[in-house]
């Protein structure tokens, strides 16, 4: 009698380059996919609204693709430590495979499940799939984790080359018996009252096929312009792959090797190297998070705990969230975020700097808003990058670096294409007045930072 294998999908919603799925196929038994919506385990951070919208679409796509290949995707809601053993019992499964996660709480959950299932006699294995280099493999000469990007990147260059991606699973044998599964719609991942996701639907198509198509499009059409135009707010040179990587519709191995194949020479090679450095920055964020799993709530640089944040001005926070600050690039960026679920990377830095340094609002409030609004919000990059702007994080921007939104606008949106699309009222004869004076608030921020720098 067959003992099926369970492939526990998490942030790896793909059939290509999926080591857990490959291991199940090699076992030569029926396979069932499983996704657990775990919002009950202690310490698990509930995903934000825009991310929930994306998850719905990506799970629907994965379920369809597994069905086409002969298997099925079981959906269950609850604490993973309870759900997974229950599904094992339901199926009489003999093996469980998954790809590793790197958040602190998630690692503890996975380790507990692995121990329990192995004690019950099951084959259980986990794999490296979502980072090129696992966080314990890149260390300084003193055997410590890196806290500065440049030496981290140099160390990565000396590591063995990332393995080539595995081929897509074309056939996935399923079980003959029906297995109880939640209906995806019952999870309420899509907004209804109100339905604020119209802009997301206009902008994105979640799922692995669309992810592969976008990677091909970027490499064929946009990679050559990446180095020259990536910082332009309205430019088309950005990859738009961040949500694909966040949800694992693409693996970093696919992106890495496909980019190398398109590297070419001259300006094209420069662009390819610049783009791959962003993949390494993503790795760096996850490595830092692995060693500092509380990065979303605790300053990485603990001396920053002494920063003199004033009492939260909720009106100022809401004005920033709504894109009504009276500062063109900030308002354009916040509106792009709300409509599309993403924001140009440089604009993310400008809007974050404005909140933290011009409004003197704790970075954690901004991080939470982005967490709720970004389709690509992941547990490493989002808090890591907010702490970078704040000056409290690893390899942080110098405390005296305060992005001037008007200077950034002139340099990276010289023809006002970005502002015209997202905040056209700033091109009228009477544009809005900024909510604060940029020069005065910059000085106030530098005075506050000096308190931390000099020990208060």
Automatic annotation (TrEMBL):
<protein>
    <submittedName>
        <fullName>Deoxyribodipyrimidine photo-lyase</fullName>
        <ecNumber>4.1.99.3</ecNumber>
    </submittedName>
</protein>
<dbReference type="GO" id="GO:0003904">
    <property type="term" value="F:deoxyribodipyrimidine photo-lyase activity"/>
</dbReference>
<feature type="domain" description="Photolyase/cryptochrome alpha/beta">
    <location>
        <begin position="3"/>
        <end position="132"/>
    </location>
</feature>
<dbReference type="InterPro" id="IPR018394">
    <property type="entry name" value="DNA_photolyase_1_CS_C"/>
</dbReference>
<dbReference type="InterPro" id="IPR014729">
    <property type="entry name" value="Rossmann-like_a/b/a_fold"/>
</dbReference>
<dbReference type="Pfam" id="PF00875">
    <property type="entry name" value="DNA_photolyase"/>
</dbReference>
<keyword id="KW-0157">Chromophore</keyword>
<dbReference type="InterPro" id="IPR002081">
    <property type="entry name" value="Cryptochrome/DNA_photolyase_1"/>
</dbReference>
<dbReference type="InterPro" id="IPR005101">
    <property type="entry name" value="Cryptochr/Photolyase_FAD-bd"/>
</dbReference>
<dbReference type="InterPro" id="IPR036155">
    <property type="entry name" value="Crypto/Photolyase_N_sf"/>
</dbReference>
<keyword id="KW-0285">Flavoprotein</keyword>
<dbReference type="InterPro" id="IPR036134">
    <property type="entry name" value="Crypto/Photolyase_FAD-like_sf"/>
</dbReference>
<comment type="similarity">
    <text>Belongs to the DNA photolyase family.</text>
</comment>
<keyword id="KW-0274">FAD</keyword>
<dbReference type="InterPro" id="IPR006050">
    <property type="entry name" value="DNA_photolyase_N"/>
</dbReference>
<dbReference type="Pfam" id="PF03441">
    <property type="entry name" value="FAD_binding_7"/>
</dbReference>
<keyword id="KW-0456">Lyase</keyword>
